[in-house]
Automatic annotation (TrEMBL):
Residues of the NAD-dependent epimerase/dehydratase domain: 8-246
MF annotations from Gene Ontology: L-threonine 3-dehydrogenase activity
Signal peptide interval: none
Lineage: Bacteria, Pseudomonadati, Bacteroidota, Flavobacteriia, Flavobacteriales
Family that this chain belongs to: Belongs to the NAD(P)-dependent epimerase/dehydratase family.
InterPro entries from the UniProt entry: Epimerase_deHydtase (IPR001509), NAD(P)-bd_dom_sf (IPR036291), NAD(P)_epim/dehydratase (IPR051225)
Pfam name, any one: Epimerase
UniProt-recorded name of the protein: NAD-dependent epimerase
Originating species: Kaistella antarctica
Single GO BP term: L-threonine catabolic process
């Protein structure tokens, strides 16, 4: 018999979202109810979770064993290859981004798990869709490996929910900006790198061109949204693919202007690489009214508050 307490497993727990989500889940549920997992060797400073499992998430047998051993009820399955890296390793991206999700859905179907969170992305939209204020129910036409895997994952979530009543919830994250753990392999990562380089070098060369707008979200708001979605009553949820999240929208040039308000000598130049084509296929802004209506999505950070908080924290972190 499973215990009634929520027991949580986080995959990708040492990544950009994973680190901060783990900390928050530990605050809410207690370290003894949170199991972090990742590929790194265990070290006592690795995570705030009460337990750590060094685990390749594509190793189904091992993952099942971990779920059983800890009597896990809820999985935050964050392990994923992002858009830039996926273009370089398409077959591995498909394997990592899809197969473990299906395994977790199977475990939930069998009654081994009660709830799953899986991140989707604005990468699902793709070309031929209006750039601005893209709605929840538009035709999806991803042209990247990452976008294709996320679109397929969303449809699998919907399938398991509709056919078997699996409680799997998802968000189409925009670019995520944070200072605690660096991002890795994404197209929106310029908006994180720029802060590190501003503090360390006073200048930045952007791999995205100056007037390319993309939706972005500060990590504090991303964590809040994820937990709010997971806490929402099941019957309020009308979207079983993944919820749109708009956050804020800006271009590299606009972000540089914000940084200059705090650091007047900061300079930026532009040298777009292969990720420019990916960015060009994504929306510039997103309509997230369905998430606001269904589970009360709200944000605390705009571009100015986010920039102030990033610079304040990175100056302290990088001085150490
Ligand atoms: C990426 O750039 O690949 C991610 C995303 C928008 O999903 N940050």
């Amino acid at each position: 018999m499973k215990s009634q307490t929520e027991k949580i497993l986080i995959t990708g727990a040492l990544g950009q979202i994973g680190t901060e989500l783990t900390n928050r889940l530990v605050e809410i549920h207690g370290a003894e109810n949170v199991v972090a997992s990742g590929l790194d060797r265990w070290d006592k400073n690795l995570t705030t979770a009460g337990f750590y499992e060094r685990m390749d998430v594509t190793n189904t047998q091992l993952v099942r064993q971990v779920i059983k051993d800890y009597e896990i009820t809820t999985v935050y399955h964050l392990a994923s290859l992002l858009s830039g890296t996926s273009e370089k390793q398409p077959l591995f991206a498909w394997k990592l981004n899809i197969e473990p999700l299906l395994q977790f859905c199977e475990m939930a179907k069998e009654g081994l798990l009660q709830k799953i969170f899986w991140p989707s992305s604005i990468a699902v939209f793709g070309t031929g869709i209006p750039k601005e204020n893209v709605g929840q129910e538009v035709v999806l036409n991803p042209t990247t490996v990452y976008g294709i895997s996320k679109m397929a994952g969303e449809k699998w979530c919907e399938y398991y929910h509709t056919k078997f009543g699996v409680d799997v919830r998802s968000i189409r994250y925009p670019g995520l900006i944070s200072w605690k753990t660096p991002a890795g392999g994404g197209t929106t990562d310029y908006a994180v790198e720029i802060f590190y380089e501003a503090v360390e070098e006073g200048k930045y060369t952007s791999f995205i061109s100056e007037n390319t707008g993309m939706p972005m979200l500060y990590m504090n708001d991303a964590i809040k949204a994820t937990l709010d979605l997971m806490a929402a009553p099941k019957e309020n949820l009308t979207v079983h693919t993944a919820y749109n999240l708009g956050g804020m929208s800006f271009t590299p040039k606009q972000l540089a202007e914000e940084i200059k308000k705090e650091m007047p000598d900061f300079t930026i130049d532009y040298k777009p690489d292969f990720r420019q084509e990916i960015a060009d296929s994504w929306p510039a802004s997103i309509d997230d009214s369905v998430a606001k209506k269904d589970w009360g999505l709200s944000y605390d950070y705009g571009i100015t508050e986010m920039t102030e908080d990033m610079l304040k924290n990175l100056k302290i972190k990088l001085a150490k």
